[in-house]
Amino acid sequence: MIRIIRIVYAIKVHRSGLELLSSKGFETIVYDKSKPLEEWLCENLKGARALVVAPFHRIGGDILDCGDIELLVIHGSGYENINLSECSRRGICVVNTPDAIAESVAEHALGLTLSLLRNIAYGNRFIRKGLWGSGPAPRPLIGTTLRGKTVGIIGLGRIGSSIAKLFRSLGNRIIYWSRRRKPEVEHALDIEYRDLYELLGEADIVIVSLALNKETIGFIDYEKLSKMKKNSILVNISRGKIVVEKDLVRALREGIIAGAALDVFEEEPIRRDNPLTRLENVVLTPHIAGYTWEAMIETSRMVAQTIIDYFSGKIPHNALNIEVCKKNIGKE
Predict the structure, then answer these.
(1) Catalytic residue at 75?
(2) How far separated are the first and last CA of the chain, in Å rounded?
(3) In angstroms, what is the C-alpha Rg of the chain?
(4) Topology of domain 6-96+293-331, CATH
(5) CB atoms within 10 A of CB 198
(6) Exposed end of the chain (fewer CB within 10 Å): N or C?
């Protein structure tokens, strides 16, 4: 039996993960919103060995000063809000859990694409105004078939690979760009590598699936958008700051590209006066691509298993600072 170890959750998660930890003898404390999060954490991190946070939580020295944790687990994939260098300096092993949401995000990318190509969201707004197919419309209601299109994926991590697999199964040709070419994935999924600008000029659908870091902030700008085909669309299910929104709005207004479908934005929640909300050739959702019950349950269990494995002496396979994790486990 593992000795009792306190784990602090900065978010409410599905009970399956908490039950798994409890069954192994861990003590879990979950944020109850009785106080502001920072104040609550400072009270409850004392004596805790691990902290579980959401990708949107900003974790730096101010929070870390409140306790002496050695493990930080992200309930999801994004870690741009975690001060990874500060965690490493303090000897804190940082792990994310991206696996469970990959298929959910891929499905959402498909849904956004179909909604835009087949005018689903647009048609919904149209009919709710009491109109029908023959009524006056700012743009035609006739759609575009998905099958047979060339899909270009920018970023081929777990989510990008899931997107490639899903769209390939629907009869689409898949090309991709990644900072590191992946021949083994190309062979397994029957996809092709392209230079970034070749991809932009060749794809009918460009899907952004990059991690956010200092190299990818503002990565998709007007210059890159201008390399896309005029009848192509852009889909972003990664992070909003990867796409320069003012450049995207300009490209849409000028007819540089045909449309865009976005689940993420430079500023979240999106402002009500954001010009994207007034464009008819845009589909928007509020950062929900990874939010399915199945993904939440599986992520909760993955987080719990990561904690159990770590305190059992196993190096987490999604460690973001693996040398720190190895050093910590070596002390156990």
Answers:
(1) no
(2) 15
(3) 22
(4) Rossmann fold (3.40.50)
(5) 14
(6) N
Q: Does the annotation count 287 as an active-site position?
A: yes
Closest CA to 96 of 82, 79, 83: 79
What ranges do the domains of the chain cover?
Answer: 6-96+293-331, 101-284
Which of 9, 157, 2 is CA-nearest to residue 71?
Answer: 9
Fold agreement between 6-96+293-331 and 101-284: yes
Token pair belonging to 234: 């852009």
- The two structure tokens encoding residue 125: 């707004």
What is the torsion angle, in degrees rounded to the nearest 10, for the CA atoms of residue 47, residue 329, residue 65 and residue 33?
-60
For residue 64, what are the CA distances in angstroms to 41, 68, 90, 144, 247? 9, 7, 9, 51, 38
CA dihedral over 246, 198, 168, 231, signed as positive or negative: positive
Among the options 49, 158, 239, 301, which is catalytic? Answer: 239
Which tens digit of pLDDT belongs to each residue from 59-112? 999 999 999 999 999 999 889 999 999 999 999 999 999 888 999 999 999 999
User: What pTM was estimated for this model as a whole?
Assistant: 0.90
Q: Tell me how far apart the alpha carbons of residues 197 and 62 are, in angstroms, rounded to a whole number.
A: 42
Q: Would you state the pLDDT for residue 136?
A: 62
Length of the chain: 332
Instruction: Please name the residue that has the structure tokens 């809000």.
Output: 81
List, as one string, the DSSP characters of 255-266: TSSSEEEES--S
The per-residue pLDDT for range 177-202, each reduced to its tens digit, is: 999 999 999 999 999 999 999 999 99
Catalytic residue chosen out of the listed positions 14, 57, 90, 287: 287
* 174, containing H or E segment: strand 173-177
Catalytic residue among 39, 215, 268, 323: 268
What b/e readout covers 120-157, taking b as 16+ CB neighbours within 10 angstroms? ebbbeebeeeeeeeeeebeeebeebebeebbbbbbbbb
* CATH number for the domain running over 101-284: 3.40.50.720
